[in-house]
């Protein structure tokens, strides 16, 4: 099968690409390298079943040409800079909503019928129902990032109804693991490398988060796509447990042998749109036989170890 | 108070403008006249508290300048051509989603804090819960129109969270009344004027719809905005009853003295994305003391009478 992966040089995109190639598939990867890293594709580039196209998903013409002949699109290209939405109020709209429309148009124009989409658990806003199921009460958005992903979901579902596409929409918790490039683990890692005595933490450190290891995330996506064949298939992907940011800090410090003084910015939210407790009900994906292999602590451990390795070999981590 | 009304030359926008002026407010109206009609503003133009600005909501610079000094925005400008979304797959995105972003940016740049938004009951897709409350289960979109309005809702809520705006989001059923310019009543009216012996109907005529009279709709919006002061206030606006499309046909034919042979296109949906039964739970707005004055039959009667009057005086109805 030939897959088309947008954002193929990103954290999840490159890991997925390697997995699809390992499974014997063809992969056409598409990336504009605005945040993607060529080195993440070193392994893929050694495979004759991989082809890389430099391009922007907003460039529908180039995208359509690159996509021709693929059977299924993994649309992972996105602005994933969740925290800084209000500093760039048009970025999420462009890179997440309008870009998703461009992908759908390319599919329509090229006759590509299947799409898997990386959405986010933050589309639930501050849900009153926890753990939050896929059919939770109609949420109110709390961040430009989540609003832009919700809009992408809506476009995909409407294209499925209007043009006969089939979709799998995945609402992720935060994903961790090798090649992870941004988010709290990198933030803490950077700070502690700079000054192991001091760590500044957004919020009160009591925010509860349910991280998932990237290989578990990819396994879940593939499980859903073979096990669920509705026109629109929506799945929460997350861990069945959670940790506090303070737990995470403890594990990172232990891995680095650091014992910093911690300064909390205070408040239960790390930033506008941060949610003090995201915890998804994952019974739907579990019913298909999937469960995560790594614990949250193990996922954080792998992430820190990968950051250390990449820094040792002179790599950057952003 | 100074209100800013986008789409001020449209069916609902012009009627709202007249009502706000009658209540003693100032109104700055904004329209690009792509579908708006200058004659709908004849009454408003006689009032010194009204100012009209020709402009497109996508032109953020012109919009921001026009909006300066207003306290509250009614954002009614939209592509309301629900049925033909799939024929123009980018139109809803541009005119409803990106346009709403432009309005929010103008508000942010100009320090305007309040927005009322015309959304749609079709954001509920094909809800399993009928009557459908505002906190119905997270819906799956079935049309590009609804998806574009859902995206607008999400953007508004995110701007409220990120930039301190306050919003009233109204999920309308179809609105009828004087100045109504498109939709099934106009379609049927046109057909019967052309040939009173024959009427073609999309679907099986059994679709159940809950229309609302435009003055009742406006009264509901104003009631909500004085009676509800959360950061994001979401209200269904609709009638407490419904009719079948066949009922509507009967009333229209009676008003016109026509007895056509009816040809149904068949199927329970009139078009892709049509919903055979939209019926909103309106307890939230009713709890504030609002209720519709006109029945659905009366609203259809007024609409037909207005179409006849406009045609008699040589006006067009679209």
Mind explaining what this structure looks like?
2 copies of one chain form a homodimer. The first copy, chain A, is of the alpha/beta class and 318 residues long. The first copy, chain A, folds into 2 domains: 2-175 and 210-237, Rossmann fold (3-Layer(aba) Sandwich), CATH 3.40.50.720; 182-209 and 242-278 and 293-312, UDP-galactose 4-epimerase, domain 1 (Alpha-Beta Complex). The first copy, chain A, has 10 helices and 13 strands. A 7-stranded parallel sheet of chain A has the order 3-2-1-4-5-6-11, with helices on both faces. A two-stranded parallel sheet of chain A has the order 7-10. In chain A, helix 1 links the parallel strand 1 (2-6) and strand 2 (26-31). In chain A, helix 3 crosses helix 4, helix 4 (91-110) runs parallel beside helix 5 and helix 6 crosses helix 8. The mean pLDDT of chain A is 94.
- The average pLDDT score of chain A comes to 94
| Oligomeric category | homodimer
- Residue runs with pLDDT of under 50 for 5 or more positions of chain A: none
Q: What structural class should be given to the helix and strand makeup of chain A?
A: alpha/beta
Strand order of the largest sheet of chain A: 3-2-1-4-5-6-11
CATH architecture verdict of the largest domain in chain A: 3-Layer(aba) Sandwich
CATH superfamily of the largest domain in chain A: NAD(P)-binding Rossmann-like Domain
How many strands of chain A? 13
Percent of residues in β-strands of chain A: 15-25%
The coarse overall form of chain A would be: globular
Number of domains of chain A: 2
Instruction: State the helix count of chain A.
Output: 10
Write down the secondary-structure element order of chain A.
EHEHEHEHEHEEHEEEHEEHEHH
What is the CATH topology classification name of the largest domain in chain A? Rossmann fold
Report the end-to-end length of chain A measured between terminal Cα atoms: 32 Å
């Amino acid at each position: 099968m030939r897959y088309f992966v947008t954002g193929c040089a990103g954290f999840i995109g490159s890991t997925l690409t390697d997995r699809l190639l390992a499974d014997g598939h063809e992969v056409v990867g598409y990336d504009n390298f605005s945040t993607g890293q060529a080195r993440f594709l070193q392994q893929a580039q050694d495979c004759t079943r991989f082809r890389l196209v430099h391009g922007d998903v907003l460039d529908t013409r180039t995208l359509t040409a690159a996509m021709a002949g693929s059977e299924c699109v993994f649309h992972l290209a996105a602005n994933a800079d969740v925290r800084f939405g209000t500093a760039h109020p048009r970025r999420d709209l462009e890179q997440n909503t309008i870009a998703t429309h461009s992908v759908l148009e390319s599919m329509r124009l090229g006759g590509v019928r299947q799409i898997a989409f990386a959405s986010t658990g933050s589309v639930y806003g501050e849900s009153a129902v926890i753990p939050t199921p896929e059919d939770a009460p109609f949420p109110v958005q709390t961040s430009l990032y989540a609003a832009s992903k919700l809009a992408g979901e809506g476009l995909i579902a409407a294209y499925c109804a209007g043009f006969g596409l089939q979709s799998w929409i995945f609402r992720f918790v935060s994903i961790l693991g090798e090649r992870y490039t941004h988010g709290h683990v990198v933030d803490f890692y950077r700070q502690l490398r700079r000054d192991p005595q001091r760590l500044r933490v957004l919020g009160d450190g009591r925010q509860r988060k349910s991280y998932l290891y990237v290989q578990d995330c990819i396994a879940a996506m593939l499980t859903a796509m073979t096990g669920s064949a509705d026109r629109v298939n929506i799945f929460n992907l997350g861990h069945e447990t959670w940790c506090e940011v303070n737990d995470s800090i403890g594990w990172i410090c232990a891995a680095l042998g650091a014992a910093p003084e911690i300064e909390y910015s205070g408040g239960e939210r790390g930033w506008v749109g941060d949610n003090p407790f995201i915890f998804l009900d994952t019974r739907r994906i579990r019913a298909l036989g999937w469960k995560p292999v790594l614990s949250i602590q193990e996922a954080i451990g792998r992430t820190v170890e990968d950051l250390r390795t990449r820094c040792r070999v002179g790599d950057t981590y952003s």
